[in-house]
Design brief:
Layout (H helix, E strand, L loop, with lengths): L1 E8 L5 H10 L5 E4 L6 E5 L2 E5 L2 H4 L7 E4 L12 H19 L5 E3 L7 H10 L4 E7 L12 E3 L4 H11 L7 E7 H6 L3 H12 L4 E3 L2 H14 L1
Helix pairs in contact: 1-7, 3-4, 5-7
Length: about 220
Amino acid sequence: MKYFIFSIDDGTIYDKDIIEIFNKYNFPATFNLNSGLGEFTWYLDEHPIYRPSLKNVKDIYKGHEIASHTLTHPYLNDLDEGQIAYEVNNDIENLENIFNEEIVSFATPFDNTCEAALQIIKNRTKIRTIRTSELDESFNLPNDLFHLKITAMNIDRAIELFEDFKSAPNNSLFVYAGHAYDFVLENKLDRLELLLKKITLESDIKVVTTKEFSYLYPVIKYKK
């Protein structure tokens, strides 16, 4: 078996659009959320990106994994050890209270998180799996669960790489990471659906959440 993870960041109003597609194919995804930002709108170029209050939209995430993405989406490299632990631990506590589920996965905000920050999260929080911002198109398993690399962040590139992934050996891993608004603003929801259709045709590829992969990892690693 090979494994595919969809890891979606930030918790915007556009999550509902891609969740409808994931649900259509009965595929779970991991949504990495910031519980300390509240309700607000920011702009990507001229496009408004609305972040709803998580308490008001929690039901749309039913059937999908909720993971931490820090409390307020800071640059972790700018924080000291105590601040990093605070950002992650408080996000975990808030998310568990909102969604009534255990939070054990984490995705780094921005694209430059240093190794020292990863080690702080490993040592000072209950997180057991970290999706980093590092790219790796090899489909190799991570060396450990605190260094889960991204295979693709662009849906067109993901579809290209998927053709190679189909012939990859068992126990390979594909991690797609991005934002729901990427698909909506670039008019590529149909491309996401195309990828999901392709996955359904492959009996040896299983879509899992980051949390599910963390449970499978020790067995997969042993088989390798």
